[in-house]
Amino acid sequence: MSQLLLSLAICTFAAASSIDRRAVVTRYNPVRTNTSPDTPLQIGNGNFAFSAGIDGLQTFQPWSIMSTWGWKNDTLPPNRTLDDVLAYKGESWWNHDKLVQYNFNGVGDLQQWLISNPNRVNLGRVGLTFFDAKGAPVSVTAADIQNATQTLDLFTGIVSSTFSILGQPVAVRTSVHQTAGAVGVTVTSPLLVRRQLAVFLDFPWNDGSSKFSAPFVGSFASTNWTLHRTTLQRVTSISAEIVHSFNSLANTTFYTSVHGSAFKLSRAEGHQFLLRPTLPLPSFAVSVAFSLQPQSPPAVPLPPAVEASSRSGWANFWEKSGFVDVVTGSTDSRAEELQRRIILSRYLMRVNNAGDIPEQESGLVNNGWYGKFHLEMFYWHSAHWLLWSNDDFVRSSSPYARFLSSSIARAQVQQPWTAGARWGKMSDPSGRSAPGQINELLIWQQPHPLIFAEYMWRSTPTHAVLQEWRDVVFETAQWMADFAWWNETTGVFDLGPPMYPVSEDTPPNSTINTAFELSYWRIGLDMATRWMERLGETPPAKWSQVAANLAPLPTSNGLYAVYEGIEDTFWTDPAFINDHPALAGLFGWLPATPKLDISIATRTTEKVWTSWNLTSCWGWDFPLLAMSAARIGQPDRAVDWLLHPLFQFDDAGMPLGGTRVPTPYFPGSGALLTAIAFMAKGWDDGPQTNAPGFPAVGWNVRTEGIRMAL
Ligand SMILES: *[C@@H]1O[C@H](CO)[C@@H](O)[C@H](O)[C@H]1NC(C)=O
Ligand SMILES: *[C@@H]1O[C@H](CO)[C@@H](O)[C@H](O)[C@H]1NC(C)=O
Ligand SMILES: *[C@@H]1O[C@H](CO)[C@@H](O)[C@H](O)[C@H]1NC(C)=O
Ligand SMILES: *[C@@H]1O[C@H](CO)[C@@H](O)[C@H](O)[C@H]1NC(C)=O
Ligand SMILES: *[C@@H]1O[C@H](CO)[C@@H](O)[C@H](O)[C@H]1NC(C)=O
Ligand SMILES: *[C@@H]1O[C@H](CO)[C@@H](O)[C@H](O)[C@H]1NC(C)=O
Ligand SMILES: *[C@@H]1O[C@H](CO)[C@@H](O)[C@H](O)[C@H]1NC(C)=O
Ligand SMILES: *[C@@H]1O[C@H](CO)[C@@H](O)[C@H](O)[C@H]1NC(C)=O
């Protein structure tokens, strides 16, 4: 018996280590031979990322260096004080029988300042400067280089770039430290021996004057010293510090420390500095480290240490997390591209969405919505981590414990009759939600923490986890129960009005009982109830009363409808079929509830597939559609949705934004990984077969460390 158990254990172990992960990962190493006008090759650690052009640096294109901690406030609007801004008040709207003061339609300049501040800073730029044989600077563009080849090794996080310029070869290696905001750069070229090559650093101005800054962030031409200042200090023969201060509300300052081969650092023009190697050696290596506090520049890890950190950090990530191999042994021609998307999405989410705060939709590549993040999007950005055994990334970035007290305060100010925590939407690192009609009236971010808690519990079913999430679960559910409004006429609890559903395109004053949100409310309140029971606490009776008596899901012509009272013609009305197709999420993304009629849900899903305006869909809509197909038993279709022509990932795996938003749009990557785990490992109540979301023929799907979805 024990012999049998032992051999079973050995078998399990052997099976668990059977995917040659390194081979699968490196098969998709991006290789470039030309500049991309749209996306960089990126290296980073979740809190800090360096975006590289074809040279491995930022010589020819001003790609960004961005972080989770680099933020600043612009100066206040003319003739305004901070008190004016903090006293901003919006408009009062009726919420049933109560007037609610929402944060929108207030005084324009104050409102705009609150929307665009704080905004995220582009920390700097690192590139190469060339000189002619006589030592005069040569102005170069990407057109002046030949034979460029560049590889991003996904398994080590190292970019190796080679090219020729001025008739000589140049090789550049770039990597990012896994626990510090430091990029390591090693340049090798005969041009160094001839003293024709130096490294430059530059510091841009950027502010909240535009909602999107893509593909590049900030202005390098701004030499206006009233706006920002740079100073050089603590210079030694191998290290130095540059201080960059923005003339902002609080004069925000960032520090850049350089450490490496012997160099002389001098100001070039504007906010640009030149590092000229002291010795005519064929190789020059420096680390450039960015921080909010002064560092000791000589203590900054040298390029070999940065590289070693990158190697071990990435090996650890690839070896210790969940893994899905759909390509080895598959004959379906779609498997190759799907695997490429999986690997590159895993890499890019680790670089961009695994830091200390939730990430903006364009991650650390460029700025969207001024660099702020959206709490409804935290689901797509982070739920996949829990399905792929990367719980730590949710622990570090989770906004829920951090924003709990401010979310309770928000509920009390906005809807004094409600208890609990009202989660905000477009947020800054302090949790303040920006003014705006959608920002105030969207509600589908509210149940998210309950799903996160539930997945945490499924991975670690301990009392400690129950306690850790207890207050978040409790306060979230309290608000949900109180937001549901008892309608005496109909004898049910209504959601809204006013509100916005997932598709942000319905009239808020008449949007009531949206199908998706009703189902999500039921699922969430049931989960919260079970959470309290697991803790041995009595859940408030109202939670189960509300869950049991929420309005029925609205229907029209035998199908589910977006909201109660919507015109029957909505399926052909451009006003309602051009935004997120959440109706297909009722049975797919979301599990069934006891109130869901699965045959209606299935027909509704198929109707969405044929009637929604797919040319208007973008990003996570396609993984959402894939999960709907998988759950209704059409796995072939599920795969097709993940490879839909309007759901594109470029050669570096960057998810294209499409017509609505700039590239990259990372909710598409997170949702893809959610759908892959769902299809590969299955879901509660799903078919008990391997990879139930993949077709039975043509696919060999292997998973390691992937968890079953709800
Ligand atoms: C921006 O200003 C607000 C209001 O004073 C403050 O709470 C916040 O911490 C500031 N953020 C930064 C990054 O300076
Ligand atoms: C600011 O106040 C000054 C002095 O009252 C006035 O001249 C100026 O027009 C005001 N500027 C704006 C933008 O309101
Ligand atoms: C919603 O109703 C409020 C009054 O409660 C009104 O001021 C506002 O204009 C209405 N909004 C829309 C979009 O109709
Ligand atoms: C580019 O590569 C080709 C083929 O390897 C070689 O013949 C040529 O000399 C290279 N050009 C430069 C400028 O290095
Ligand atoms: C520099 O920026 C300040 C603040 O925006 C502005 O008032 C000033 O006119 C600018 N100076 C120049 C020379 O552009
Ligand atoms: C910001 O720095 C400028 C220039 O050094 C100075 O004139 C100004 O008073 C400072 N403002 C604050 C808020 O510290
Ligand atoms: C009660 O529900 C009905 C049907 O949804 C709706 O028309 C009515 O406005 C609701 N009553 C109130 C006071 O909101
Ligand atoms: C469908 O979406 C496309 C792209 O956004 C748009 O141009 C077109 O007008 C939409 N069609 C309808 C019927 O809404």
What does this molecule look like?
With 710 residues, the chain is of the alpha+beta class. It has a domain at 33-73 and 120-318: putative glycoside hydrolase family protein from bacillus halodurans (Beta-galactosidase, Chain A, domain 5), CATH 2.70.98.50. The protein has 20 helices and 29 strands. A nine-stranded antiparallel sheet has the order 1-11-12-13-14-21-18-17-16. A five-stranded antiparallel sheet has the order 10-9-15-20-19, with no helix packed on it. The protein has a three-stranded antiparallel sheet with strand order 2-3-4, covered by helices on one side. Helix 8 runs parallel beside helix 20, helix 13 (448-459) packs antiparallel against helix 14 and helix 18 (621-631) packs antiparallel against helix 19 (635-642). The longest helix is centred in the middle third of the chain and has 21 residues, at 463-483. It is globular and about 90 Å long. Mean pLDDT is 96; it is low at 1-16. The protein binds 2-acetamido-2-deoxy-beta-D-glucopyranose (NAG) (8 copies). One 2-acetamido-2-deoxy-beta-D-glucopyranose binds at residues 574, 578, 613, 615-616, 659. Residues 224, 226-227 line the site of one 2-acetamido-2-deoxy-beta-D-glucopyranose. This is Six-hairpin glycosidase. One of its GO terms (molecular function) is catalytic activity. Keywords: Signal.
